TrEMBL record:
<dbReference type="InterPro" id="IPR006683">
    <property type="entry name" value="Thioestr_dom"/>
</dbReference>
<feature type="domain" description="HotDog ACOT-type">
    <location>
        <begin position="1"/>
        <end position="109"/>
    </location>
</feature>
<dbReference type="GO" id="GO:0009062">
    <property type="term" value="P:fatty acid catabolic process"/>
</dbReference>
<dbReference type="InterPro" id="IPR029069">
    <property type="entry name" value="HotDog_dom_sf"/>
</dbReference>
<dbReference type="GO" id="GO:0052816">
    <property type="term" value="F:long-chain fatty acyl-CoA hydrolase activity"/>
</dbReference>
<keyword id="KW-0378">Hydrolase</keyword>
<dbReference type="InterPro" id="IPR033120">
    <property type="entry name" value="HOTDOG_ACOT"/>
</dbReference>
<dbReference type="Pfam" id="PF03061">
    <property type="entry name" value="4HBT"/>
</dbReference>
<dbReference type="InterPro" id="IPR040170">
    <property type="entry name" value="Cytosol_ACT"/>
</dbReference>
<dbReference type="GO" id="GO:0005829">
    <property type="term" value="C:cytosol"/>
</dbReference>
<protein>
    <recommendedName>
        <fullName>HotDog ACOT-type domain-containing protein</fullName>
    </recommendedName>
</protein>
<comment type="similarity">
    <text>Belongs to the acyl coenzyme A hydrolase family.</text>
</comment>
<dbReference type="GO" id="GO:0006637">
    <property type="term" value="P:acyl-CoA metabolic process"/>
</dbReference>
Length: 129
């Protein structure tokens, strides 16, 4: 799994315990996963269908730098499944894991539409002449 997105944990991201608020982290994950799905499926019309169990393994504190790793694990006719891990950039300690996140490609009518993809593509390969 590649870890490309990094976030700096700031005071506004903390819960009353002084650790990273789970809602902030889930927002970052959902946004990053949506961007990943948009790039992989070549469509701006993708939505979150579901996330499996979210396993908070450890905490992050103010000033920690965390990194998000997302990778595609399966392509359906209209969907794409991914998995995610978040870890501390410096210590590499796992903070969170999600085994399954499913995103669905939508047509102009707002209903699931085939995307025609079957495997991971990389940006360097998408824009070759």
């Amino acid at each position: 799994m590649n870890f490309h997105t990094r976030k700096w944990v700031k005071p506004e991201d903390l819960n009353p315990n002084g650790t990273l608020f789970g809602g902030s982290l889930l927002k970052w994950i959902d946004e990053e996963a949506a961007i990943y799905a948009i790039i992989q499926l070549g469509s701006q019309r993708v939505v979150t269908k579901m996330m499996s169990e979210i396993n908070f393994v450890s905490s992050a504190r103010q000033s920690d730098i965390i990194e998000l790793g997302i990778t595609a694990t399966e392509f359906g006719r209209t969907s794409m499944t991914m998995r995610c891990e978040v870890r501390n950039k410096i210590t590499r300690k796992s903070i969170l894991t999600i085994d399954r996140m499913v995103f669905v490609n939508l047509g102009e009518d707002g209903k699931p539409a085939p995307h025609g993809k079957t495997e991971i593509t990389y940006i360097r390969d998408q824009f070759k002449d």
